[in-house]
Amino acid sequence: MYTSKSLRKSSYVMLRCTPAEKRYIKIRARDAGLSVSVFLRDMGLKDSPEKRKTLPPEALASIGVLSGLIGALEIIARKRLDNEDLDGLERAELNFRAKEVKMVIKDIKSYLSCSEKSAPEGQPAKP
């Protein structure tokens, strides 16, 4: 079979992967009845990988606040389970953390209400 020079496969793509990934790719190519080259070329040209979703900075900040809250609550819960009373500093931190949670809830509600307003009519808002 003769092909024109423009259709000949003469370019190379280097791929780095782990030995386990390489074995898996070979197995999938074999199961599909294809060579590794044809399998990867078909996957790259036909299947669009899902775009990785990233969280907005506000969400990441909220996660940080909530993680700090979890740490503080674990310490307080441990003390209470040991029948120890909270000292003034711990009570103050608990009040501070409660205010932080209220702020995070307010930020989430605000973010969601802005998303709903910007979504086209009849379509759900994107988070």
Q: What is the percentage of strand-forming residues?
A: under 5%
Average pLDDT number: 80
CA radius of gyration is 27 Å
Largest sheet report: none
Helix and strand composition category:
mainly alpha
Principal-axis shape equals: elongated
Poorly predicted runs of 5 or more residues: none
Structure annotation, total helices: 4
**Can you give the helix content as a percent range?**
55-70%
Short description:
The protein has 127 residues and is mostly helical. Helices cover 63% and strands 0% of the residues.
Can you describe this structure?
- This protein has a domain at 57-118.
- It has helices at 19-31, 36-46, 57-81, 88-118.
- The mean pLDDT is 80.
- The protein is built from four helices and no strands.
- With 127 residues, it is an all-alpha fold.
- Helix 1 (19-31) packs across helix 2.
- Helices cover 63% and strands 0% of the residues.
- The two termini are 53 Å apart.
Comma- or semicolon-separated keywords:
single chain; 63% helix; elongated; 4 helices; 127 residues; mainly alpha
Give the SSE layout.
Elements: H1 19-31, H2 36-46, H3 57-81, H4 88-118
Helix pairs in contact: 1-2, 3-4
